[in-house]
Design a protein that fits this description.
- With 258 residues, this protein is of the alpha/beta class.
- The chain has a single domain, classed as Rossmann fold.
- Helix content is 34%, strand content 13%.
- The strands form 2 sheets. A 5-stranded mixed sheet has the order 3-4-5-6-7, with helices on both faces.
- The protein starts with 10 loop residues before the first helix and ends in a 15-residue tail after the last helix.
């Protein structure tokens, strides 16, 4: 991160190691937590993160969901994540794969969570998808200030998979948290548009969801009807990692230590 042209100065506070420590400290009251951080597999121009093991991207690093048409092919994010976590747990003494799973995507990482949502919505009831154990262990999908350098799908907006998720016998909780860094940039109005669309879809299809907006570590009153123009720094983008209600992402049966 220290080599990143835009975020390099934030490396001390928001490196992978620093974020892992922050999240573990926030989860210290919950027993038996394993935290796995998945790095981007590629950086285009040292700027645009790409998680190419999970999502197809254009040559400029924009997520491309047009290939999600059947199990296999580009629709393999769940299968890859399932194998990745199994191998990681097997390599660490005391780790277990047999646990409820919480998946959180921050910033460009939200593109991976969007892929996972589209796949599970489209394919959860197909036999070819049923052997992916992780799909039955996931309890929540969370987007933290999701964004990328494209103009569509900055938050999930594809109606078909979201609507089909209503038929899922036990759909994961869907949580979305955002800051003015993503929602109030007048040069990128499509993020605000997609955020509003996503929340409306979740509400209309009566899925288990929760959303909130934050600024400077606190709840921020945001209006979908009257978009605000608020110029904020990149710090606001990263600060959501320290203030989003992480306990809402956890399974309700989690054991809380006294």
């Amino acid at each position: 991160m220290s080599a990143h042209p835009q975020f390099g100065g934030l490396a001390e506070n928001w490196s992978f190691e620093a974020v892992a420590s922050l999240l573990l400290n926030r989860l210290e009251v919950v027993s038996g937590v394993h935290l796995w951080i998945v790095r981007a597999s590629q950086w285009l121009l040292d700027t645009f993160a790409c998680y190419t093991n999970f999502v197809r991207y254009t040559g400029s690093g924009v997520p491309d969901y047009s290939g999600i048409h059947g199990v296999g092919g580009t629709s393999s994010a769940w299968r890859h994540l399932d194998a990745l976590l199994k191998n990681a747990a097997a390599a660490v003494d005391g780790a277990s794969f047999e646990l409820p799973c919480v998946i959180i995507g921050f910033s460009k990482g939200g593109s991976v969570v969007t892929q996972l949502l589209y796949e599970i919505g489209l394919f959860f009831d197909l036999p070819e998808f049923s052997d992916v154990r992780l799909t039955s262990q996931v309890v929540s999908l969370t987007w933290l200030d999701s964004g990328h350098n494209g103009v569509t799908h900055l938050w999930p907006t594809w109606t078909v998979p979201i609507a089909r998720l209503r038929r899922h016998p036990s759909p994961p909780k869907l949580l979305a948290f955002a800051t003015p860094y993503e929602l109030c940039d007048e040069n990128r109005p499509w993020n605000n548009r997609d955020f509003g669309t996503f929340i409306r879809l979740l509400k209309n299809f009566r899925l288990p969801y929760y959303f909130d907006t934050f600024y400077k570590g606190h709840h921020w009153d945001y209006s979908f009807e009257f978009p605000q123009t608020l110029r904020v720094g990149i710090d606001s983008h990263f600060e959501i990692l320290a203030c989003f209600p992480i306990h809402l992402c956890m399974p309700t049966s989690s054991t809380v230590l006294p």
